[in-house]
Amino acid sequence: MSKTGSSQARWIGILVFLLIISLGELTALILNYQNNFYLRQYISTNLGATVVTTVGLLVFASGAAYLVSKRFGVTKIPGPRVPVFARIGSLVGRRYKLIIVFWILLLAVSFPLSQQLSQVVTSNTSGGQSGTSESARAQNLMAQEFPHPQANTSAIILLQGNDVTDNATKRFTLDLEKQLLVAGVLNSLENFTSVYSLERTAFTAYYLQTGDNYSTAQSIANQTIWAYTLASYRFPSPPIPPIPPAILQNFISPDNKVMIVLVSFSQSPGSFASANNDPILKNVVTIRSITSSLKSSDGGPSQTYVTGDLATTADSSLGSDRDLALIEPVTIGAILILAGLFFFAIATPFVPLTIVGLALLITEGGLYLIGKYILPVQATTTTFLFTIMLGVGTDYSIFLMARYREERIEGHNKAQAVQTSVTWSGESIATSATTVIIAFGAMTISSFTLLQSIGVGLGFGVLIALLVSLTLIPSFILIAGDRIFWPRSGKRFESYAVRARKKRAERPGYFRRAAGFSVRRPALVLGLTVLISIPAIYISLTGATSYDFAAGLANAESVHGLTVLEQSFGAGQIGPTQVLVQFPATILTNGNLTKVAQVNLETLSQSIGNLSNVKVVTGPTRPNGAPVNATNMKTVMPLDRLAILGDIGKDNRTMLVTVLFVEEPFTQRSLDTVSQIRSLVGTLRALDPSLGQDSILVGGASASTLDFSSETVGQFNTMRILTVSAIFLVLLVVLGSYPLAITGILSIGLSITWAYAATLLFFNNVLQSGVLFIIPLILFLLLYGIGMDYNIFILTRIREEAQKGKETRQAVVDAVDRTGGIITALALILAGALGSLLLSSNRLLEGFGFAIALAVVLDAMVVRTYLVPAIMSVLGQRAWWGPNRLRRVRFDKKEEPPSASS
Q: Minimal CA–CA distance to 493: which of 404, 403, 405?
């Protein structure tokens, strides 16, 4: 063996050894993950750092291997350097049968795992808020001191009718209670609470005090409940209502048209909650079935809703299943039709679909392992994964197949056509996939589990799609040959190739004319771009966004129920804000509140109640919204006394103050009110030394949303910087040019701005459904990955044409002419795949589908066809300026005419 060969073998051996060590460590990490609490906690909260560290270690391993090989005398191979993708093409040409066997074996291993993916998929998107945020600390203290009710453990049943205090609704409610309390009907049932159960409890307590035993007292109470109505319930002596109106108003709306019934459970949904397999979420389906059956038999309320956080989680899970059932056939149909029209063939569209389907199953098998051992997989991720992999995967496959067809048209044989396709198209799709993976990988920095799941799942899926496109597609072509273009194969394909060459020589097509126009009139194209961009930028910066994730399930019963709850009981009822005050010492003396606690809490409650967006404040000093003297419990009504004690924590130091807003909790005004409360707390603590000793935390739905928004925006700023920087470096290495790398970054930025502005106008003004605040943040990352595809395809083809010795403007026109049809077809295919998300019942997916599909079409039809040629024309030979070692195209000054702007 030569010195060069032995050095290369040594380098490869060392690299393989280090990679085996790294994989061994990763395997040990996975195997120990479930059994190591501190490891789980670290990875769950520092996933981004973990990924970056892992990549860093691999890079270090590769670098160390390279340095060692240099140390032991690697010599350069004489002659021209063989491109990496040319070597890949050569490998595929020699080992295509082995490659096919490898992917089939991998599919056989992955398929059983992919069928278990649903076991590790969760519909709960609430995870991910930093444990150090004020609302998270408030939630932890709340769970510690006030264990009931826990978050996401109660279903709210709304009964709506002309008068819900009538006997028909009473009968319905009592029958519903009877059926739901039957053992085994609901899982982990803890309590059923209605106005009638409260009345029954009050009457039972009354008769127990008169000397009756429990059985007799309960029997008399039940008879009283059935015999009278809510308006006529009275104790025999004194004849006062058992339940004060202040408590009844929490269950019955002021107009008597809506009644609330609460069903609470002792457990919350599991980490991988799905309405199909989680027993707590199944309760929601069971309750709806029983209420529907009772409405048919008993009459009673005209409308019932099962709502609340638990129902919303269940609806999200059920909606995801329905979305996939609808989106899958539409996406596949769009790809089949568009690909078939582009190739004008029947067999061709099935090739990428079959290959990408194989890649999807392999990816789902890998996601099952990720979900089981590392990170919960969100239901939204699986919906995204299907559309992204079909869209991106078929793009990559069809791009390579189209280049193969182009080479065959030019007269090259099958092996040469495959080699050229992998050499040039392979580099383009690998660069494109790298930018997509970078964008998705940046999402793992987020503390929001939804974004972590999307980043890991989609990044992994795109990697598998890339590997399949680079190896399996060309391997299949080498076996099938031109039969992949059936019925345009054999003699028909030869005739088609002759006609295509003749047509190209005789008459320039649309894309050649468009590129020629942009090259000749760059100032006009750039001027129009600026005119369009100014209003788009203004709309993007000033457009209103929503913070209500639940409202994204526009057609769900739980959301309709929340709307009824808001209209009947006030907007703030659906998500109260909790203020937790923890005193340094116990605040109860002989069952009474201490004077210091009374004064401090009432001062705080009164100050909060004076804010404009605050409707009512309840707590130990005002159990029903009106101040009481809790320092003397004997003067307080029995039910008020129970309410006061219920707002005092187990440690007798922590007190709960509940704040209901005028507006719903997710409006900008409500989020501002949380900031005002926190500011107010700081001011009061500075003015009152006794308050300064207390620990005061503001939590609840609005506070959590505010903290999450602040954290997410900060994290996305970091993601943006990392994504743009990494993509710029990738483009610089591939294109060897500073101006082209910058052009790619800025042009996709324009596509994002235009698409986001259109999304705001469409969803806010046409659909009037609003745009979630997280959409523009994720949209930036998604489009800098996916939307970069066509810029890369065109820029690498321009570079390829320029490397043949053509001057820049001629290279641009030829590149756009050669790639115009395929890139437009790919854009339409990807837009069709992602546009199918508009069929989703989830507003988050609808927004993504609309924005990404529009951005992809704009990028392919406008940016790539007109803007990029205009910029290249202005730059001229300056377009190829870059680091000397990376430059791919070099001109002598006399060879390149002056630019259009000169």
A: 405
Which are the contacts of 704, defined by CB distance < 8 A and separation ≥ 6? 129, 135, 136, 139
Tokens of 746: 């800025």
Judged against a pLDDT cut of 90, whether residue 808 lies above it is answered with: no
**Hey, what are 901's tokens?**
């702007």
> Is the per-residue pLDDT at 759 higher than 90?
no
The verdict on whether omega for the bond into residue 269 sits within 30 degrees of 0, i.e. cis, is no
Q: How many CB atoms lie within 10 A of CB 519?
A: 21
Beta partners for residue 698, in sequence order: 579
| Long-range CB pairs of 597-603, under 8 A, 24+ apart, other chains included | 597/655, 598/629, 598/630, 598/631, 599/690, 600/688, 600/690, 600/691, 600/694, 601/655, 601/657, 602/627, 603/684, 603/688, 603/691
Helix (H) or strand (E) holding 215: helix 214-227
CA pair distance 149, 266, nearest whole angstrom: 9
Confidence category of residue 317, pLDDT binned at 50, 70, 90: confident
| 139, HSE (Cβ side, Cα atoms, 13 Å) | 21
8 A C-beta contact, residue 730 and residue 437: no
pLDDT band at 692 (very low <50, low <70, confident <90, very high): low
103 — pLDDT class (breaks 50, 70, 90): very high
DSSP secondary structure string for all residues of 694-707: SEEEEEEHHHHHHH
| E strands in 72-188 | 121-122, 154-160
State how far the Cα of 297 lies from the Cα of 306, in Å rounded to an integer: 19
CA atoms within 13 A on the CB side of 23: 6
pLDDT the model gives residue 108: 92
User: CA 865 to CA 816: how far, in whole Å?
Assistant: 7
Q: What are the distances in angstroms from CA 671 to CA 117, 517, 618, 828, 853?
A: 37, 51, 20, 40, 32
Residue whose structure tokens are 């408590």: 247
Residue 329's pLDDT band, with cuts at 50, 70 and 90, is: confident
Longest dimension (CA), the chain: 113
Angle CA(53)–CA(59)–CA(60) in degrees, nearest 5? 85
State phi, psi for 159 to the nearest 5 degrees.
Answer: -110, 120
User: What is the arithmetic mean of pLDDT over 424-431?
Assistant: 82
What integer pLDDT is reported at residue 98 of this predicted model? Answer: 92
Q: Which helix (H) or strand (E) holds 190?
A: strand 189-193
pLDDT in tens, 11-58: 444 444 444 434 443 433 333 333 333 334 434 444 444 444 444 444
pLDDT in tens, 620-678: 888 878 888 888 887 777 777 778 888 888 888 888 888 888 887 777 888 889 999 88
Other C-beta atoms lying within 10 Å of the C-beta of residue 73 = 11
Closest C-alpha to 775, from 664, 669, 856, 850: 850
Whether 379 contacts 314, CB under 8 Å? no
Q: Are strands 588-589 and 592-593 parallel, antiparallel or unpaired?
A: antiparallel
Kindly report, residue by residue over 378-390, the tens digit of the pLDDT.
777 887 787 778 8
Q: For residue 817, what are the β-bridge partners?
A: none
Q: Is 190 exposed, middle or buried (0-12, 13-18, 19+ CB in 10 A)?
A: middle
Q: Using CA atoms, how far apart are residues 795 and 267, in angstroms rounded to an integer?
A: 56
Q: Check pLDDT > 50 for residue 106.
A: yes
Residue 589 falls in which region: left (phi positive, over 0), alpha (psi -120 to 50) or beta: beta
Mean pLDDT estimate for the chain: 78
- Give the 3-state secondary structure of residue 637: coil
Is residue 860 within 8 Å of residue 827, measured between CB atoms? yes
775 in Cβ contact with 851 (< 8 Å)? yes
Q: How confident is the model at residue 74 (pLDDT cuts 50, 70, 90)?
A: very low
